[in-house]
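quick q for whoever's on today - can somebody do inverse folding on this one?? i tried earlier but teh output was garbage lol. tokens:
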């Protein structure tokens, strides 16, 4: 079996979990730490929400598959130019929150990209995204 290609990041945020949750689920804040399609709108994320980027030769889809307010958010990733159908992959962005004493520990996992032919490329890009997004989420929640 190939090595796992999972990015993990942890950050402690000086804000309650409810504030961090808003940064993760409200498009007005998501746009401050990640890209959204131009036509996405401003409705909060919820279980089943689909975020879809349509390009000339492919589509990229994020689907909210786990939604536990103030605790856990999981968005499964699928790219239509991957070899297999979406249900053949378990590649996701997962945000886990744990509040203690007015602070929130945010644990982010991205992957596992090992099932993809260009998995290392996705992993490398996600390493940078993990670093940048966790810091931006922290800044937004604390201000």
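ok took a stab at it. sequence:
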């Amino acid at each position: 079996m190939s090595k796992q290609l999972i990015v993990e990041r942890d950050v402690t945020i000086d804000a309650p979990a409810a504030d961090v949750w808003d940064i993760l689920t409200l498009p007005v804040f998501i746009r401050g730490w990640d890209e959204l399609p131009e036509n996405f709108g401003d409705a909060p994320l919820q279980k089943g929400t689909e975020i879809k980027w349509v390009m000339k030769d492919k589509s990229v889809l994020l689907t909210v598959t786990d939604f536990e307010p103030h605790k856990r958010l999981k968005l499964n990733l699928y790219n239509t130019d991957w070899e297999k159908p979406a249900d053949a992959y378990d590649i996701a962005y997962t945000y886990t929150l744990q509040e203690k004493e007015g602070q929130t520990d945010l644990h982010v996992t991205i992957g596992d990209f090992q099932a993809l032919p260009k998995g290392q490329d996705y992993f490398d890009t996600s390493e940078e995204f993990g670093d940048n997004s966790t810091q931006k989420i922290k800044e937004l929640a604390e201000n």
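fwiw The longest helix spans residues 119-142. also The chain has one domain: 7-98+112-142. so keep that in mind when u check it
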